[in-house]
Specification:
26% strand, Dna Ligase, domain 1, single chain, 5-stranded antiparallel β-sheet, 301 residues, globular, Rossmann fold, D-amino Acid Aminotransferase, Chain A, domain 1, alpha+beta, 4-stranded parallel β-sheet
């Protein structure tokens, strides 16, 4: 049976970004009609019988079978609102707007995972500067990890080596009205984490990421190195469970290994493809297009 051709919008600010380019290439290779749409230039007109979506002055509402959101952190609210409108107009999406919003807020992510009994590092959030020392002790003492509630690619993640430095950083951020969370430092992780790439609630690729001597963060964008990794059955289970409870059928889930077992530290709704494809030689972009082909229903059919 011949696969029906789809009209796909990739919501991205730049067609030259590696992940965007790979998705475009794989979709066009399959014969689909693909367009890169800068979501920051999109507007929604409400009040009509059917809300209209505009790119500049062009109406792009109609005939969209599927969207692949690649929404940057700085435009999460606007981007997710555009995604929501495409959803409401009937387009299939690889990341629902609610899933994007949930995963972008680290506190909300941790709250959902904790409620679903998915293992996470000890995490604390507060606004009271009077009890910072006690809060640090609740996390097992220094060093501790300090994270901005919204951030990606390792940005907004800090390590405080001592109680004194932790108190100073936390007080400064609280006084600047910056929303943060505090997490225990997992020393035995040795600056490593595991990126698990999930497509259609199935694991398609994974790799171990290691930090450099100059930076404790293991993100490839921060200069981290990669190596092959064999996931345990439990690691596979919690990665897939994370994608499901956050509503992100296509995402990257990050796990660290601790003395008490694997811990989920983050989920990324727009996880990059360059590092994972380069290291594993797995066509992750192609898997995402296959996922669309299996799930999209043409309008009116």
């Amino acid at each position: 049976m011949t696969q029906p051709k789809m009209n796909i919008y990739i919501l991205s600010i730049n067609s030259r970004i590696y992940s965007t380019n790979r998705l475009y290439h794989e979709a066009t290779k399959k014969g689909h009609n693909v367009r890169v749409v800068d979501h920051t230039r999109c507007a929604v007109l409400l009040g009509e019988a059917k809300p209209q979506i505009y790119l500049g002055s062009e109406n792009i509402t109609h005939g969209v079978d599927a969207i692949i959101p690649r929404i940057g952190t700085s435009v999460t609210r606007h981007g997710s609102a555009i995604v929501k409108q495409f959803e409401m107009n009937g387009a299939f999406t690889t990341a629902k707007s609610l899933g994007i919003i949930r995963s972008r807020n680290k506190l909300r992510t941790m709250q959902i995972l904790a409620r679903k009994r998915i293992p996470i590092p000890k995490t604390l959030f507060a606004k009271d500067t009077a009890n910072i020392k006690e809060h640090i002790e609740l996390l097992g003492g220094a060093p501790i990890i300090i994270k901005l509630q919204e951030g990606t690619q390792g940005l907004g993640v800090m390590i405080a080596e001592s109680k004194k430095s932790a108190k100073s950083i936390i007080e400064s951020l609280y006084n600047m009205n910056v929303n943060i969370i505090l997490q225990e430092f997992i020393e035995e992780a040795n600056g490593q984490d595991i990126r698990v790439y999930i497509v259609g609630n199935k694991i398609v690729a994974s790799m171990m990421r290691s930090s450099t001597e100059e930076d404790f963060r293991s993100n490839v964008h921060r200069g981290g190195t990669t190596e092959s990794v064999t996931l345990t059955a439990y690691e596979k289970k919690i990665a897939i469970h994370t994608s499901k409870v956050l509503g992100l059928p296509v995402c990257g889930v990050d796990i660290i290994r601790s003395k008490r077992g694997p811990l989920v530290i983050e989920a990324n709704s727009s996880a990059g493809l360059e590092g994972i494809e380069s290291h594993t030689n797995i066509n992750v972009a192609g898997e995402i297009i296959k996922y669309l082909e299996k799930n999209v229903r043409r309008f009116g059919k």
